[in-house]
Amino acid sequence: MSMDVGGARGGVKSDINVTPLVDVMLVLLIITMLIAPLVQAGANVTLPQARNLQAKPDTQTQTTVLITAGREFYVDGQPVSDAQLLSRIMESLDAKPEHIVYLKADRQTPYAAVMEMMDRLREAEIEEVGLITEPDPEAQRQTEGGE
C-alpha cells in the first residue's frame, strides 16, 4: 500500500511499486529453469548399446564419471586430471545424497580403461558402481512390437 504525501489527490507516492520488478524476476527464474537442464557440461561421447531397457538414472543427483576414447576423465561434467580423479569423485560423493558412481564410457574406450576405473573405485572403497549405456534400437523395437 502507498499513501499520498501531497495535499491534493493524485500527489507524489512515497512507496516504490515492486510489481514490475517481481514480474521480471519471475520471468528470469522461469527462463533459467527451462534452460538449465538443456546445458550439460562435459565431453561428447557415444555410449555403447545394451539390450537391457532399464531407465537411465537421473545424473543430476548422482556422481557421474565419464571416460572419453582418448582416456580423458570428467567428473560430473568437469574435466579432471588422472591424479585428481579419486579425490574429486570423493568430494562429489560427499556432496550428493546417493553414494553411487555411474560410469559413462565412449564406445571406442578400451575395455581395460573401464575395468581399471572400476578397480580404482573399489580400492577407494566405492562399492556401488553402475554403467550407463544406450538402449539397443533393435531390442527396443522388439519390446515395443510385443515380440
Relevant terms:
single chain; 147 residues; alpha/beta; Nucleotidyltransferase, domain 5; 2 domains; five-stranded mixed β-sheet; two-stranded parallel ribbon; 4 helices; 7 strands; elongated
Summarize the structure.
This protein has helices at 19-35, 85-95, 111-123, 137-145; strands at residues 49-50, 63-67, 73-75, 78-80, 101-105, 129-132, 134-135. It is an alpha/beta fold and 147 residues long.
Overall description:
- With 147 residues, the chain is of the alpha/beta class.
- The protein has 2 domains: 39 residues, no CATH class; 93 residues, Nucleotidyltransferase, domain 5.
- Helices cover 34% and strands 16% of the residues.
- The protein has 4 helices and 7 strands.
- The strands form 2 sheets. A 5-stranded mixed β-sheet has the order 4-3-2-5-6, with helices on one face. Strands 1-7 form a two-stranded parallel sheet.
- The longest helix has 17 residues.
- The termini are far apart.
Architecture of the largest domain, CATH level 2?
2-Layer Sandwich
- Number-wise, the strands total 7
Radius of gyration, rounded?
A: 25 Å
Cα distance, first to last residue? 67 Å
Q: How do the strands of the widest beta sheet line up side by side?
A: 4-3-2-5-6
Low-confidence stretches: none
Overall mean pLDDT stands at 79
> What's the CATH topology name of the largest domain?
Nucleotidyltransferase, domain 5
CATH top level class name of the largest domain:
Alpha Beta
* Structural domain count: 2
Strand/helix succession: HEEEEHEHEEH
Assess the beta-strand content as a share of residues: 15-25%
Number of helices, counting only DSSP H or I runs of 4 residues or more: 4
Based on secondary structure, the structural category is alpha/beta
